[in-house]
Amino acid sequence: MIISINWLVAMAAGTLGGTLLLALAGLVTACRAGKRADAVRVAADLAAARLATVESELARASTELADIVAERERTAALPTRPSLREAVALSRHGASTDELVSTCRIGQSEARLIQMLYGTQRTATRAEGEALEA
User: Fold this and answer.
1) 3-class DSSP assignment, residue 1
2) Which of 9, 96, 103, 123 could make a disulfide contact with 119, Cβ separation 3.0–4.6 Å?
3) How far apart are the C-alpha atoms of 105 and 15, rounded to whole Å?
């Protein structure tokens, strides 16, 4: 069996052409992969920037929350003034204006008004007399 030179050249050219075609396909694939890698890097950088923004906002919110909690604790620690309901109850039980002022830490005029509106007849009359004297 004699192999002709033309046939060998044709086979070599076909093999070389196939090899070149495979190499070209590999280059195209590598180029696409490089572009994808670049796109992935850009997406990762964007995600990192967004994460940094979220972390800074979270830190700011945590600080703000801590300030709010501290303010609530400060206001809860302050001595509270007895309510006007207590002054009304005391007035109904016959407390004087001076007793209302000292016990409930309200002003003289508030105590007189509470006695006139809610006090017994005796305390209301006494409050009106004190108001006329003042």
Assistant:
1) coil
2) 123
3) 106
Asked if 96 contacts 125 with a C-beta cutoff of 8 angstroms, the reply is no
**54 falls within a domain:** yes
Amino acid making up residue 4: S
**In Å, how far are 34, 37, 47 from 26, measured between CA atoms?**
12, 16, 31
Q: Is residue 94 part of a domain?
A: yes
Q: Assess whether 73 and 96 both reside in one domain.
A: no
Residue 129 lies in a domain: yes
Convert the pLDDT of each residue in 64-123 to its tens digit: 999 998 888 887 765 566 678 888 899 999 888 889 898 888 889 999 999 888 887 665
d(CA 22, CA 28): 10
Assess if residue 25 is contained within a domain. no
Domain count for the chain: 2
From residue 132, how far is each of 60, 112, 119 by CA, in Å? 58, 11, 17
Q: At 120, list the tokens.
A: 């017994």
**96 and 73: one domain?**
no
Residue 58's domain comprises 31-78
